[in-house]
TrEMBL record:
Keywords linked to the UniProt accession: Hydrolase
Transmembrane segments: none
Matches recorded under PROSITE patterns: TAT (PS51318)
Top-rank EC class of the record's enzyme: hydrolase
Species in which this protein is naturally found: Bradyrhizobium symbiodeficiens
EC number: 3.1.-.-
Gene3D superfamilies according to UniProt: alpha/beta hydrolase (3.40.50.1820)
PANTHER family linked: ALPHA_BETA-HYDROLASES SUPERFAMILY PROTEIN, CARBOXYMETHYLENEBUTENOLIDASE-RELATED
Protein name: Dienelactone hydrolase family protein
Gene Ontology MF: a single term: hydrolase activity
Domain Dienelactone hydrolase residues, every copy: 69-291
Length: 295
């Protein structure tokens, strides 16, 4: 198996969860119509839907080099100096769950932006139904390019009236890994929140250092939210990361939800665990407030 289709630990965690029955799930047609991804499996009929009342939302194009990167944004209407929070998506692309999270952050007062940094392959990830086909795209993304795309996203939000001096990042699954990577890269990031982000990478020449290897280089405080029942990211690995950060005197906190599987915040999937997801969201909000991202 080539590194392009290697099952990273985040993918192992999400592929081993299957809803017990189809009851309570949308038909594939309804899920696609609602804007959800195909590859993540059945979509819960009770997926959270956040309205746009009091918000300005829309699609944008962010200049990266000579190209235009698609993005989705949400911000409080009329608020020109809202803090900027980048939303780093899972491997499934810029689909409805990620857009909804963006709106939830805007309701908290943020100018939230979800960039579609896999756009260069010319493939809409939300329309891919097989995980292996997704992996050939997302595993081929060089970290250097990813970090540059995130810098461009922060700069774009600042140019649109957001307050980029109060910059945060939140990410889920592969996006959780992105949070750790960006916290080691950006000198302007105030805080990050990583939901079940991979900590150790398989060998990939495009990913020079895994989050664990970057522990000594962390520049911003990160909150790690993990599931004790995650089959891809063992609790022992989370403890190892915690120890590496402490040893390097880096600011980080972890909360492990003992019964929660990988993807416990993904309210559109069978992996969703309401209690853990709601508590984790409160922890994330408090973290962003503590480090001056949110007011």
């Amino acid at each position: 198996m080539s590194f392009e289709t290697t099952m990273t630990s985040d993918v192992v965690g999400l592929t081993k969860i299957a809803p017990v029955s189809r009851r309570g799930f949308m038909s594939a047609t309804a899920a696609v119509a609602a804007g959800y991804t195909l590859a993540a499996g059945p979509v819960r009929a009770e997926a959270i839907a956040t309205d746009t009342n009091g918000l300005q939302v829309g699609d944008a194009r962010i200049k990266v080099g000579s190209e235009q990167m698609p993005a989705y944004f949400a911000r409080p209407a009329g608020n020109t100096k809202a803090p900027v929070i980048i939303v780093a998506m899972e491997i499934f692309g810029l689909h409805e769950y990620i857009k909804d999270v963006t709106r939830r952050l805007a309701k908290l007062g943020a100018f939230a932006v979800a960039p579609d940094y896999y756009f260069r392959k010319g493939t809409d990830l939300t329309k891919i139904s097989e995980i292996k086909d997704l992996l050939s795209v997302v595993n081929a993304k060089p970290d250097a390019e990813l970090l540059s795309d995130l810098d461009a996203t922060a700069a774009w939000a600042g140019s649109q009236g957001g307050d980029a001096t109060r910059l945060g990042i939140i990410g889920f699954c592969r996006g959780g890994r992105t949070v750790w990577e960006y916290a080691a890269h950006s000198g302007t990031l105030k805080a990050g929140v990583a939901f079940y982000g991979t900590l150790v990478d398989p060998a990939n020449p495009l990913w020079p250092k895994s989050p664990m290897q970057l522990a000594p280089e962390m520049k911003a405080p990160v909150l790690g939210l993990y599931g004790g029942a995650d089959t891809g990211i063992p609790v022992a690995q989370v403890e190892q990361m915690k120890a590496a950060l402490a040893e390097n005197k880096k600011t980080a906190e972890f909360k492990i939800y003992p019964e929660a599987p990988h993807g416990f915040h993904a309210d559109y999937r069978g992996s969703y665990r309401k209690d853990a997801a709601e508590d984790a969201w409160k922890q994330a909000e408090a973290w962003f407030k503590k480090y001056g991202v949110l007011s």
